[in-house]
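Example 9 (inverse folding). The structure is encoded as follows.
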């Protein structure tokens, strides 16, 4: 087991709680350690990995205040493989897994926040390129992202075929939509919508799992917002409120249904509002 997983179990538990529909939430601050993510545009504001951690800590504070038990996949600036982040969430039997990221492009231009759920096919070319960039993380031997390409594609297809028959996959779309709704009044920048892509960090999750791309680090205005204290606070508030809405509106209803009535429903069609093309990200 990754050494940080052991640290997490001992040090990162917050309050055991009674938020409607939610017992345990795992928040994943994207990147970390030698995987720095994208550089921030504003001078002296660092790297993506720093801001995702600050945002994730604030999300945890909001959820803790509502009585949710919260774990972070990393509490410090450490390396952690994508596969181990998912294993961590599964080991803690999380009701929800949210991976927090910030976006970037080769040339400034695109702006806004978007949330992804797992799918074999990407919503568009921009989503495909973004997933490919995010999947380029430090992986341990035997992890999906480091497997030969043919084997990885087979595993991904198997995972997604299973996901298509599970409530977790359908609920991931509802979770993404709830987060997007709540992010919109918190951010002065556009809602780019709910999209789908084959993010490795979501593969194998046994609960509703999404990737939040909370804004563009290299946009001249949004880059300042997402690296500011006010931006961190507002983004975290939106993510936390979206998670809580999902708990109240979806997870609580699922848990209240008799066991015999919990047969998986067919997955809802993907919802997208993104229309602006996004160039590949650069580290």
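The amino acid assigned to each position is listed next.
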């Amino acid at each position: 087991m990754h050494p940080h997983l052991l640290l997490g179990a001992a040090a990162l538990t917050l309050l055991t709680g009674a938020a409607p529909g939610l017992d345990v939430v795992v928040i994943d601050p994207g990147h970390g350690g030698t995987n720095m993510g994208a550089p921030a545009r504003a001078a002296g504001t660092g790297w993506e990995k720093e801001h995702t951690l600050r945002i994730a800590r604030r999300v945890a504070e909001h959820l803790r205040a509502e009585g949710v038990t919260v774990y972070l996949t990393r509490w410090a600036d450490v390396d952690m493989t994508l596969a181990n982040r998912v294993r961590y969430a599964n080991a803690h039997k999380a009701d929800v897994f949210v991976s927090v990221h910030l976006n970037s492009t080769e040339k400034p231009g695109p702006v806004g926040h978007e949330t992804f759920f797992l799918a074999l096919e990407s919503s568009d070319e921009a989503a495909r390129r973004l997933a490919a960039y995010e999947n380029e993380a430090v992986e341990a031997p035997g992890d999906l992202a480091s497997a030969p390409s043919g084997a990885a594609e087979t595993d991904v297809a198997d995972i997604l075929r299973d996901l298509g028959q599970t409530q977790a996959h359908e609920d991931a779309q509802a979770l993404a939509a709830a987060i997007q709704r709540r992010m919109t009044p918190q951010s002065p920048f556009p809602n780019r919508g709910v999209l789908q892509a084959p993010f490795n960090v979501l593969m194998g999750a046994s609960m509703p799992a999404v990737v939040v791309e909370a804004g563009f680090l290299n946009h001249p205005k949004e880059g300042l917002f997402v690296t500011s204290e006010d931006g961190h606070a507002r983004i975290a508030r939106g993510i936390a409120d979206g998670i809580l809405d999902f708990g109240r509106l979806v997870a609580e209803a699922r848990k209240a249904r008799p066991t015999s009535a919990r047969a998986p429903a067919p997955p809802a069609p993907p919802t997208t509002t993104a229309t602006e093309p996004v160039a590949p990200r650069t580290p």
